[in-house]
Amino acid sequence: MTIRRQRVEWVVAADRSHLHELAANVILDVLRNTERPVFGFATGGTPLGLYEQLVRRSLENPRLLTRWQDVTGFNLDEYVGLSPEHPQSYHHYMWRYVYRYLPVRPDRMFIPKGIGNLEDNCRSYDESLMKYGWPDVQILGIGKNGHIGFNEPARRLAMNTHVTRLSESTRLANARFFPSARDVPEQAITMGMAGILRAKQIVLLAFGEAKRDALIRAFSGWLGTDVPASLLQLHPHVTVFTDQDIFGDLS
Ligand code: PGA
């Protein structure tokens, strides 16, 4: 079922692999039809099926595969304190699940650096965004608390790339990727709200009961920094791919 509610398009289906396929269609269309595509990548459990589709369908089609040579990638975030080689770092994630299969240019695949001088890393990340352009498509997940990237609920939200303290809810949710909850870093570097909202198009994936409440709060018609994803309602081109039918719960 596809419906348009206010400015947001909702693609709702029970089958997650079907949703991944439909989301992959959006990315692959831009890959085919844009001279120098810029993609904003998310990490976490939700987009793995989408990446599997992108890789498989690119490998099956030599012309599509070569298009990846012209891609610039920007990731949303990285844990502070984890080196790029660390198995739980988002650098490692991207190379493990996506980049190693595709003919991408490593110097064009930007991921915030969680080690070294963090202030410098934030600044140079924003400079790269300005130089290569904000994403043609930004892939997003959503946290149970309504975060996007690691822009956590707060009294104020930052525009630019910044260091942030992870909420307990986020650390608990991500503990499944670490030996124990104690090992989840307390801080991260994340693209700010401006970086996300300047993307031309946003593809938001949200699966399972656990994300239901966050979706309802994000798309209720109200805006608040206590639900960072609610600012997506201001964006002109958001598509939500979800297995949750929440329309009865929206005001
Ligand atoms: P998840 O994370 O895909 O692992 O649920 C999403 C998010 O926190 O943005």
Structural features, described:
There is one protein chain. Helices cover 31% and strands 18% of the residues. It has helices spanning 16-33, 48-59, 62-67, 90-97, 118-132, 168-174, 193-197, 212-218; strands at residues 2-5, 8-12, 38-41, 72-75, 77-79, 109-110, 137-140, 162-165, 187-190, 201-206, 238-242. An 8-stranded mixed β-sheet has the order 1-2-11-10-7-3-4-6, sandwiched between helices. Strands 5-9-8 form a 3-stranded antiparallel β-sheet, with helices on one face. Strand 10 (201-206), helix 8 and strand 11 form a beta-alpha-beta unit. The two termini are 20 Å apart. The structure holds 2-phosphoglycolic acid (PGA).
Task: Provide tags for this entry.
single chain; 251 residues; alpha/beta; eight-stranded mixed β-sheet; three-stranded antiparallel β-sheet; 18% strand; globular
Please outline the major beta sheet.
8 strands, mixed
Biggest β-sheet: strands ordered side by side in the sheet: 1-2-11-10-7-3-4-6
- If you average the pLDDT, what whole number results? 96
Which outline best applies? globular
**What is the ordering of alpha helices and beta strands?**
EEHEHHEEHEHEEHEHEHE
Helix content: 25-40%
* Head-to-tail CA distance between termini: 20 Å
Number of E strands: 11
SSE class = alpha/beta
